[in-house]
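Subgroup meeting minutes
Present: P.N., E.W., G.H.
Scribe: E.W.

1. P.N. recapped why we're keeping a running log of single-chain structure predictions: easier to compare across weeks, and new members can see raw inputs and outputs side by side.
2. G.H. added today's entry (261 aa).
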Amino acid sequence: MSWQFSLASDIGGRTEQQDCLDKLSLNGSDSHLVIVADGMGGHRDGARAARTVIDTARQRLSEDPLADPRAFLKSLCLESHQAINELGGNDERSPGSTCILLYVNGPEAYWAHVGDSRLYHFRNGELLNRTQDHSVAQLMVEQGRMNEADVAGNPLQNQLYMRLGGDKTPQPEFGASEIEADDIFMLCSDGFWAYITPEEAVTTLKHLPPDEDGAAHLVAIARKRGGSSGDNISLALTRWAPEKSNGGGGLLSRLRSLFCL
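Output recorded in log:
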Protein backbone atom coordinates (compact mmCIF):
# COMPACT_ATOMS: atom_id res chain seq x y z
CA MET A 1 0.00 0.00 0.00
CA SER A 2 1.33 3.39 -1.02
CA TRP A 3 -0.75 5.79 1.05
CA GLN A 4 0.43 6.78 4.52
CA PHE A 5 -1.85 8.21 7.19
CA SER A 6 -1.67 9.96 10.53
CA LEU A 7 -4.77 11.03 12.48
CA ALA A 8 -5.04 12.93 15.74
CA SER A 9 -7.72 14.69 17.76
CA ASP A 10 -7.96 16.68 20.98
CA ILE A 11 -10.86 18.09 22.98
CA GLY A 12 -9.09 21.44 23.32
CA GLY A 13 -10.56 23.77 25.92
CA ARG A 14 -14.12 22.51 25.49
CA THR A 15 -16.11 20.26 27.81
CA GLU A 16 -17.28 18.00 24.98
CA GLN A 17 -15.61 16.62 21.86
CA GLN A 18 -17.82 17.41 18.86
CA ASP A 19 -15.26 16.46 16.19
CA CYS A 20 -15.07 13.03 14.58
CA LEU A 21 -12.51 11.72 12.10
CA ASP A 22 -11.87 8.39 10.48
CA LYS A 23 -9.93 6.57 7.77
CA LEU A 24 -11.76 3.74 6.00
CA SER A 25 -9.93 1.36 3.69
CA LEU A 26 -11.20 -0.97 0.99
CA ASN A 27 -9.95 -4.53 1.39
CA GLY A 28 -7.30 -5.63 -1.06
CA SER A 29 -6.78 -2.27 -2.75
CA ASP A 30 -5.03 1.03 -2.23
CA SER A 31 -8.33 2.90 -1.96
CA HIS A 32 -9.24 4.84 1.17
CA LEU A 33 -11.76 7.37 2.43
CA VAL A 34 -10.62 9.97 4.97
CA ILE A 35 -13.23 12.02 6.84
CA VAL A 36 -13.23 14.97 9.23
CA ALA A 37 -16.58 16.14 10.63
CA ASP A 38 -17.10 18.98 13.10
CA GLY A 39 -20.39 19.09 14.99
CA MET A 40 -21.86 22.55 15.02
CA GLY A 41 -20.88 24.33 18.23
CA GLY A 42 -23.84 25.79 20.08
CA HIS A 43 -26.32 23.42 18.46
CA ARG A 44 -27.90 20.49 20.28
CA ASP A 45 -26.26 17.13 19.67
CA GLY A 46 -23.36 18.43 17.62
CA ALA A 47 -21.29 15.41 18.62
CA ARG A 48 -23.99 13.04 17.41
CA ALA A 49 -24.23 14.92 14.13
CA ALA A 50 -20.50 14.56 13.48
CA ARG A 51 -20.60 10.87 14.38
CA THR A 52 -23.53 10.42 11.99
CA VAL A 53 -21.30 11.51 9.08
CA ILE A 54 -18.78 8.79 10.02
CA ASP A 55 -21.46 6.15 10.53
CA THR A 56 -23.09 6.96 7.19
CA ALA A 57 -19.75 6.61 5.41
CA ARG A 58 -19.05 3.26 7.03
CA GLN A 59 -22.45 1.98 5.89
CA ARG A 60 -22.15 3.32 2.35
CA LEU A 61 -18.57 2.42 1.44
CA SER A 62 -18.44 -0.83 -0.50
CA GLU A 63 -15.53 -3.24 -0.78
CA ASP A 64 -14.74 -2.23 -4.38
CA PRO A 65 -13.07 0.93 -5.73
CA LEU A 66 -15.62 3.58 -6.60
CA ALA A 67 -16.69 3.82 -10.22
CA ASP A 68 -17.76 7.46 -9.80
CA PRO A 69 -16.06 9.07 -6.77
CA ARG A 70 -17.72 12.45 -7.24
CA ALA A 71 -21.22 10.94 -7.31
CA PHE A 72 -20.41 8.86 -4.25
CA LEU A 73 -19.09 11.83 -2.27
CA LYS A 74 -22.15 13.90 -3.17
CA SER A 75 -24.54 11.15 -2.13
CA LEU A 76 -22.62 10.64 1.10
CA CYS A 77 -23.02 14.32 1.97
CA LEU A 78 -26.73 14.30 1.17
CA GLU A 79 -27.42 11.06 3.05
CA SER A 80 -25.51 12.39 6.06
CA HIS A 81 -27.57 15.59 5.86
CA GLN A 82 -30.80 13.59 5.93
CA ALA A 83 -29.61 11.34 8.76
CA ILE A 84 -28.63 14.36 10.86
CA ASN A 85 -32.05 15.89 10.32
CA GLU A 86 -33.60 12.69 11.59
CA LEU A 87 -31.68 13.17 14.83
CA GLY A 88 -33.54 16.42 15.35
CA GLY A 89 -36.94 14.72 15.21
CA ASN A 90 -39.63 17.31 15.66
CA ASP A 91 -37.31 19.93 17.14
CA GLU A 92 -37.38 23.35 15.56
CA ARG A 93 -33.66 23.26 14.77
CA SER A 94 -31.70 20.14 13.85
CA PRO A 95 -28.12 19.58 14.95
CA GLY A 96 -25.49 20.23 12.30
CA SER A 97 -22.01 19.29 11.14
CA THR A 98 -19.35 20.30 8.68
CA CYS A 99 -17.51 17.67 6.67
CA ILE A 100 -14.43 17.27 4.51
CA LEU A 101 -14.13 13.99 2.60
CA LEU A 102 -11.08 12.72 0.72
CA TYR A 103 -11.21 9.58 -1.43
CA VAL A 104 -7.88 8.31 -2.74
CA ASN A 105 -7.48 5.47 -5.21
CA GLY A 106 -3.88 4.83 -6.16
CA PRO A 107 -2.42 8.04 -7.62
CA GLU A 108 -5.81 9.79 -7.80
CA ALA A 109 -7.59 11.94 -5.22
CA TYR A 110 -11.13 13.30 -5.03
CA TRP A 111 -12.63 15.45 -2.32
CA ALA A 112 -15.83 17.19 -1.25
CA HIS A 113 -16.62 19.59 1.57
CA VAL A 114 -19.44 21.37 3.32
CA GLY A 115 -18.82 24.08 5.94
CA ASP A 116 -15.50 25.32 7.28
CA SER A 117 -13.50 22.16 7.88
CA ARG A 118 -10.67 22.36 5.35
CA LEU A 119 -8.53 20.36 2.97
CA TYR A 120 -5.02 21.51 2.01
CA HIS A 121 -3.04 19.84 -0.80
CA PHE A 122 0.74 20.27 -0.74
CA ARG A 123 3.37 19.33 -3.32
CA ASN A 124 7.09 19.87 -2.80
CA GLY A 125 6.35 22.17 0.12
CA GLU A 126 3.96 24.35 -1.90
CA LEU A 127 0.23 24.73 -1.39
CA LEU A 128 -1.65 23.59 -4.52
CA ASN A 129 -5.25 23.61 -3.33
CA ARG A 130 -7.30 24.72 -0.35
CA THR A 131 -11.04 24.39 0.07
CA GLN A 132 -12.96 27.62 0.58
CA ASP A 133 -15.08 27.91 3.72
CA HIS A 134 -18.84 28.22 3.45
CA SER A 135 -18.85 31.07 5.95
CA VAL A 136 -19.82 34.73 6.00
CA ALA A 137 -16.21 35.61 6.77
CA GLN A 138 -15.00 33.81 3.63
CA LEU A 139 -17.56 35.68 1.55
CA MET A 140 -16.22 38.95 2.91
CA VAL A 141 -12.68 37.90 2.00
CA GLU A 142 -13.79 37.16 -1.55
CA GLN A 143 -15.47 40.58 -1.71
CA GLY A 144 -12.30 42.28 -0.50
CA ARG A 145 -13.95 43.41 2.72
CA MET A 146 -11.77 41.29 5.04
CA ASN A 147 -8.20 40.04 4.99
CA GLU A 148 -7.62 36.29 4.94
CA ALA A 149 -5.37 36.62 7.99
CA ASP A 150 -8.27 38.04 10.00
CA VAL A 151 -10.67 35.13 9.41
CA ALA A 152 -9.53 32.96 12.33
CA GLY A 153 -11.23 34.12 15.49
CA ASN A 154 -13.66 36.47 13.72
CA PRO A 155 -17.27 35.87 14.85
CA LEU A 156 -18.41 35.89 11.21
CA GLN A 157 -16.37 32.75 10.61
CA ASN A 158 -18.82 30.87 12.84
CA GLN A 159 -21.74 31.96 10.66
CA LEU A 160 -21.97 29.20 8.06
CA TYR A 161 -24.33 29.48 5.11
CA MET A 162 -23.95 25.78 4.30
CA ARG A 163 -23.83 22.77 6.61
CA LEU A 164 -25.07 19.23 6.97
CA GLY A 165 -28.38 19.23 8.83
CA GLY A 166 -31.05 21.91 8.74
CA ASP A 167 -33.67 23.16 6.30
CA LYS A 168 -31.29 24.03 3.45
CA THR A 169 -30.07 21.16 1.28
CA PRO A 170 -26.28 21.46 1.00
CA GLN A 171 -24.49 21.78 -2.33
CA PRO A 172 -21.07 20.18 -1.69
CA GLU A 173 -18.05 21.57 -3.48
CA PHE A 174 -15.70 19.13 -5.19
CA GLY A 175 -12.08 18.86 -6.24
CA ALA A 176 -9.86 16.25 -7.86
CA SER A 177 -6.20 15.81 -8.69
CA GLU A 178 -3.68 13.36 -10.03
CA ILE A 179 -1.02 12.72 -7.40
CA GLU A 180 2.76 12.83 -7.49
CA ALA A 181 5.16 11.17 -5.07
CA ASP A 182 5.16 12.72 -1.58
CA ASP A 183 2.05 14.82 -2.16
CA ILE A 184 0.37 15.52 1.20
CA PHE A 185 -3.27 16.20 2.01
CA MET A 186 -4.16 17.85 5.30
CA LEU A 187 -7.79 17.63 6.46
CA CYS A 188 -8.68 19.57 9.58
CA SER A 189 -11.38 21.24 11.64
CA ASP A 190 -11.33 24.97 12.35
CA GLY A 191 -9.91 24.27 15.80
CA PHE A 192 -6.70 23.30 14.01
CA TRP A 193 -6.34 25.75 11.12
CA ALA A 194 -7.11 28.72 13.38
CA TYR A 195 -3.73 28.16 15.10
CA ILE A 196 -1.48 26.43 12.56
CA THR A 197 -0.62 28.07 9.24
CA PRO A 198 -0.07 25.98 6.09
CA GLU A 199 3.55 27.13 6.00
CA GLU A 200 4.14 25.96 9.56
CA ALA A 201 2.49 22.62 8.86
CA VAL A 202 4.71 22.02 5.81
CA THR A 203 7.86 22.88 7.77
CA THR A 204 6.89 20.51 10.58
CA LEU A 205 6.05 17.67 8.20
CA LYS A 206 9.52 17.81 6.67
CA HIS A 207 10.79 16.46 9.99
CA LEU A 208 7.72 14.50 11.14
CA PRO A 209 5.93 13.03 8.10
CA PRO A 210 2.50 11.39 8.38
CA ASP A 211 3.88 7.90 8.99
CA GLU A 212 5.81 9.21 11.99
CA ASP A 213 2.76 10.66 13.75
CA GLY A 214 3.18 14.20 12.45
CA ALA A 215 -0.52 14.77 13.12
CA ALA A 216 -0.17 14.23 16.86
CA HIS A 217 2.71 16.71 17.03
CA LEU A 218 0.80 19.42 15.14
CA VAL A 219 -2.37 18.90 17.18
CA ALA A 220 -0.37 19.29 20.39
CA ILE A 221 0.87 22.68 19.16
CA ALA A 222 -2.66 23.81 18.30
CA ARG A 223 -3.91 22.61 21.70
CA LYS A 224 -1.28 24.66 23.51
CA ARG A 225 -2.02 27.79 21.51
CA GLY A 226 -5.77 27.47 21.94
CA GLY A 227 -5.45 27.16 25.70
CA SER A 228 -8.48 26.95 27.94
CA SER A 229 -10.74 28.66 25.39
CA GLY A 230 -9.61 26.64 22.35
CA ASP A 231 -11.98 24.69 20.16
CA ASN A 232 -11.94 20.93 19.51
CA ILE A 233 -9.03 20.00 17.23
CA SER A 234 -8.92 17.34 14.52
CA LEU A 235 -6.29 16.62 11.88
CA ALA A 236 -5.88 13.87 9.29
CA LEU A 237 -2.71 13.68 7.16
CA THR A 238 -2.43 11.61 4.01
CA ARG A 239 0.72 11.15 1.90
CA TRP A 240 1.31 9.33 -1.38
CA ALA A 241 4.57 7.38 -1.09
CA PRO A 242 4.58 4.84 -3.95
CA GLU A 243 8.18 3.72 -3.45
CA LYS A 244 7.87 3.26 0.29
CA SER A 245 6.25 0.60 2.40
CA ASN A 246 3.81 1.36 5.18
CA GLY A 247 5.00 -1.72 7.07
CA GLY A 248 7.51 0.23 9.13
CA GLY A 249 5.30 3.22 9.82
CA GLY A 250 3.71 4.26 13.08
CA LEU A 251 0.62 2.68 14.55
CA LEU A 252 -1.71 5.24 12.99
CA SER A 253 -0.42 4.42 9.50
CA ARG A 254 -1.33 0.75 9.92
CA LEU A 255 -4.67 0.79 11.69
CA ARG A 256 -8.02 2.27 10.77
CA SER A 257 -8.61 4.82 13.50
CA LEU A 258 -11.79 6.43 14.77
CA PHE A 259 -11.54 9.47 17.03
CA CYS A 260 -14.69 10.64 18.78
CA LEU A 261 -13.36 11.45 22.24
